[in-house]
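User: Some background: our group keeps a shared notebook of sequences we're curious about, and every so often someone picks one and asks for a predicted structure to add to the entry. Today it's my turn. The entry only has the sequence so far, pasted here. Could you supply the structure so I can complete it?
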Amino acid sequence: MDNEVKLKMENIINKLLPEALAKGLEKAGQIVENDAKRRVAVDDGTLRASITHKVEIDEGKVSIGSNIQYAPYIEFGSGVYNPEGRKTAWIFITADGQTWRTEGQEAQPFLQPAVDENTDKILQAFEGLLREE
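Assistant: Of course. Here's the predicted structure to add to the notebook entry:
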């Protein structure tokens, strides 16, 4: 009897828990990815298309984001609009010779709100998974 209980507990710890965690992380990642894509400001769709998620089961986490260089400027703002940004305006010249003055860009968050406003759905992604396994 003791061996049977021990074997069942080992199975839960070694197999079922990691599988349930991976499924929950995948569901949570998909929830946030979908909502972030819905929220993101769209010019040509490049940023929206770049938003993905990746489950890192060894670390017990899911990473959600974009590999587009300008994504942090959209999420957090730039220049005077970002607490860590430049504090003064600047001038730049475009390739066609036009001169522009800017203070930066206001934040248009899409990732953090997708996490914050889906907390209940994220928690639900993990409910009942162990029973399913």
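Suggested note for the entry: The chain is about 50% helix and 15% strand. The CA atoms of residues 92 and 121 lie 44 Å apart.
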